[in-house]
Automatic annotation (TrEMBL):
It comes from the Bacteria. The keyword Transmembrane applies. It comes from Gemmobacter lanyuensis. This is LydA holin phage, holin superfamily III. The chain crosses the membrane at residues 12-34, 46-65, 71-90. The keyword Transmembrane helix applies.
Length: 107
């Protein structure tokens, strides 16, 4: 599937920015949505040095998501969605999803 002719926002982003930049943007937006939820809940200040830790989290979750998408042989648009969702979940959220899916509980 050609990303330039597939249309849609993700296809446009991949054509304009490239696939790698689109992945990082999706991961960053996923972490931003998570952070805004934490701010609204009053668990975090809106701006601060704690935001520095969101950068490596977004990058690592993007790598994990792209690896998972490649393993599952997903198309580029779906891969970008998986990146955004896993970046939003973060490491703890991803662990919780895996534990629920496998029936294992935390000890």
């Amino acid at each position: 599937m050609d990303t330039q002719s597939s249309g849609g926002l993700i296809g446009w982003m991949q054509a304009f920015f490239g696939a790698g930049a689109t992945t990082i943007i999706a991961a960053g937006l996923g972490r931003l949505v998570y952070h805004s939820g934490e701010v609204r809940a009053g668990r975090r200040p809106a701006i601060g040095l704690h935001l520095i830790w969101e950068v490596p989290t977004a990058v690592v979750m993007a790598l994990v998501a792209e690896s998972l998408a490649a393993y599952l042989n997903l198309p580029p648009q779906v891969t970008t969605g998986v990146v955004a969702v896993l970046a939003y979940l973060g490491p703890r959220g991803a662990r919780d999803v895996i534990e629920r899916a496998t029936g294992k509980t935390k000890t």
